[in-house]
Amino acid sequence: MSTRLKVVQFGIGPIGQSCLRTVLSKNKSIELVGAIDIDPEKVGKDVSEILGLEQKTGVIVGSDARAVLENARPDVVVHTTSSFLASMYDQLLLCAEYGANVVSSTEELSYPFDRHPEISVRLDEAAKKHGVTLLGTGVNPGYAMDALALMATGVCNEVTSIEVNREVNASLRRLPLQLKIGAGLSVEAFEEKKATGQFGHIGLVESVKLIADGLNWPIERLNETLDCVISPKKVVTPFLTVEEGQVAGIHHYAKAFIGDTCVISLDLKMFVGAEDPRDAVLVQGDPPVDLVVRGGIFGDTATVATLINGIPSVAAGPAGLATVASLPIPRAFGTKWSK
Amino acid sequence: MSTRLKVVQFGIGPIGQSCLRTVLSKNKSIELVGAIDIDPEKVGKDVSEILGLEQKTGVIVGSDARAVLENARPDVVVHTTSSFLASMYDQLLLCAEYGANVVSSTEELSYPFDRHPEISVRLDEAAKKHGVTLLGTGVNPGYAMDALALMATGVCNEVTSIEVNREVNASLRRLPLQLKIGAGLSVEAFEEKKATGQFGHIGLVESVKLIADGLNWPIERLNETLDCVISPKKVVTPFLTVEEGQVAGIHHYAKAFIGDTCVISLDLKMFVGAEDPRDAVLVQGDPPVDLVVRGGIFGDTATVATLINGIPSVAAGPAGLATVASLPIPRAFGTKWSK
Hints:
The structure is a homodimer.
Chain A lengths: L4 E6 L3 H12 L4 E7 L10 H5 L9 E2 L2 H8 L3 E4 L9 H9 L3 E4 L12 H14 L2 E4 L10 H6 L5 E12 L5 H6 L6 H9 L8 H12 L5 E10 L4 E2 L4 E2 L4 E12 L2 E11 L6 E9 L2 E6 L4 H18 L3 E3 L17
């Protein structure tokens, strides 16, 4: 690549910081030109200080998104501020206004058309007006339970149903995630917290919609269910201990129907002590396809990868609000051997 | 889909006939409007007669491609006439001239830029001039050993090497394929026939190039090797018997290097008696990805599927010479549930 793509990082939470590290590591292909966050602890500091790097980057965190974009004029914004669209889509409109393509971790942006039809129209119009591509992606939603499933159907003449099973061993993940899935709670405490809407994966419905839209399937009914996984044994992680009979994590699943037939089943289990982590796609059809990523796709690292790998994709993409299903096959970018 | 895409079948050999059956079965989404072949046994007959169908299709096989295209004005041509580009790229130019997008089984078209740079330029220019998309695809090349490998890297921050292993149990395939891989020959007879260039899979180098280009990897050296697989036991298929010590099939592999590092290894085994048929992609990187299609992707059926599933993709694609890596994720088309 002769000229490096200029990148602004919008949102410097844990994922945003990992994105920053990755962007800096790929400086042969991309150039960090700005960083945005509203946290007073971060504003005004060189990015290196936040990341604990010795060498200054020369990029100072700004809280005024407009000013940063005006000054930096990025090709692409890597956006990691929120899971939800309603509270922050103005950030995306602002990026579009400055001619910046966006790859965002916002789960609701992975398939926004049904949940937020009006916002989707506004985003699409703004993107087209300014000639930029807006994309929501990640490992899940964005890959493991949707794009990979669509890909699996690519060799099928007929598809009658799709079943995706993602099992994540949360023992290997960081403490906030273990707490987020309720590990170590009693079943009663889990149910109480669940009633407040604090548990569960965001984006399962979006994944269903991505698959259904990709196959042009008119889903008639969609059930989404959240249960806890009860630990059959004592599990000790680096951070906490789960006793037998306590909650080990979540079991979150969605089933989509046409008539009485369950045509799409997405099943996500994230719990400590999971012994068979995997991402499995089973396509019933002609021919059937039984695809599995053994050991599963490691969430934290891979989420950052899907975002950074989306940079050249949105930079080259057609103007408008895109999805992982409307852009070319995702692939690694700026690797060790890349020109 | 409100209007059906109009399709012409160009080439009515075994794969072309399967394509015709599939096109006719998806008549909710696509409409067969023409068929081209030069075989005097087929010319002038209704397609139904060639396929052994009771009901007439109203589509008569024509030998004059220009006349068929002129009359039928298809949106998409499904092209299955040859593995090689040099002898037939004028067929593709003709399709472009009539404003028809093309999805072709021509192995060399899956990544034509290195082997046929001048033809590639001519095809790309013609496609752009007439606003059509030209694509070469299939299961292999086009999916199992290239597109799927690229897809697997989509969740990686770093990729240091890619290894693809495709093992096909030829016992389940038709007789011509079993003969094509030398099943039942002595090793000497295999070596003699191999020297005449009659064995081997077409497209392995194209798959390497698709991956390398997708990752922007500057391959410095590429070794391609064809061996026979010797049967360790007696194998009886519905068509023939292979004795212990006879040839069971082919082992065809390619290794691509940057410096002294083998960065891409594609390994294809097609033989009778294969006990672990599979399509496996192993990505070394961060994170590593260990993806496998258990039981493998069934070649004959899936090849037709990749072509037919390419119809809406080329119809909507950007003008020019495309590859599976430049178009959106392949997916099933016109299935039972599709609108």
